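User: Here's a chain of 485 residues. Predict its fold as tokens.
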Amino acid sequence: MPKTETAHINPNGFREYDARWLYPKDINQEGIKNIGRGLGSQIVSKTNQSPRVIVGHDYRSYSEEVKKKLIEGLIDTGCNIEDIGLALSPTAYFAQFHLNADAVAMVTASHNENGWTGIKMGIEKGLTHSDTEMKELKNIVFKKKFVNGKGSYKEIKKFKDIYIASLIKNKIKNKIKAVVACGNGTAGIFAPKVLKGIGCEVIELDCNLDYNFPKYNPNPEDLKMLRALSNSVKKNKANIGFAFDGDGDRLGVVDDIGNEIFSDKIGLLISRNLSFEHKNSKFIVDIKSTGLFKTDEVLKKNSCKTIYWKTGHSYIKRKVNKEKALAGFEKSGHFFFNKPLGLGYDDGILSAIQVCKLLDKNSSKKISDLLDEIPKTYQSPTMAPHCNDAEKYKIVDVMTQKFRELFEKKTRIAGILISEILTINGVRFILENGSWGLIRASSNKPSLVVVTESFQSTDEMKAIFSFIDNLLKATGKVGEYDQKI
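Assistant: Prediction complete.
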């Protein structure tokens, strides 16, 4: 008999709410199987002895073999697998509701570069693993506290069509010309079809599946992807451009002029639109999001409340669920729509539909006109200076303490006093004029996250960034940025 390889799993792959590894460098096939055993043991302990688990995979050259080993581990614990095949993460979340299953495990590395694999998983419907559940899973895996059982495998054919049919019920009345960019990721076989189905004229951009991602990663925050989308919008005189990430749970938007609209501003436009029909609603936004949610006159007029919360799709999902909020918005492009609009999880295509509904309702205006109706702010991109996984949380703790001291000493940043410090997730310092800066640890990469926003000018925004940058450089633990202002 051939010798079974020894399981290899880099412990740093267990992140706050996702699991991500370089494959096979940081996790091998037997390691994946042990992840399956651990997850299966966790699911059995929280549900029943014979749970039904939805499994799907994204379009990468190795995703099917990763899924196969994950399934083997799950079956060893007594889980009954219902495999929906090639899917988006929201397709898998939807399947858990539609098929009334006990849990979900989606093999995806989302927008990460080729070579990465990972799993998005959840037990309670509409929610993915919390940081507590991830720590619990890691403990089960490394201590091999696996349960034994005999599960089963079943393939669910053509589930893609059921998912698409559920979305195309959202018809629009007025024709919208939309460029749909998928970066050759899995969304290419879903998003164009849905948007055509609701009544859009669709121009496809890199929607053919190619797991080499020959042009750029399918990442709606990637400037290469957004520039290509912008050029196509202008060339085709489109009303809007949509960019989807590798597993289809995030959305990026380019307006009719070709300008990128940061996702928090799109979230604000959607919130305003929804607030007229859904007065007294709550909205959850992540700590990286614009300060305009707090000051918006339309939301105030419609008695809506905004709560800032931890960055991360799992955190925002849970907060939307707990607060019974109408929707949640994350600056990275994860949007969450609760009943009656959705089922609480992040779905990039449903998010695009909500933008289409916004345009449909305001048919005499362009998206750029609607954007002009909210106060102008000057936002940095989401910047990610390199910082080792072992160091990043320590650095954030140091920075949090530093800004508390600066607040107490009445230190001025860009000539303005600090008025408030938020430490929900890293440290966000807010200046007296509403401008702010944020430092937090990335949840899925060895880096920090730095964001700044000025209510006054680009110069002030850059000055806030320079202040942060100088503090980070002084630690000697922070490297180059993926992008700068």
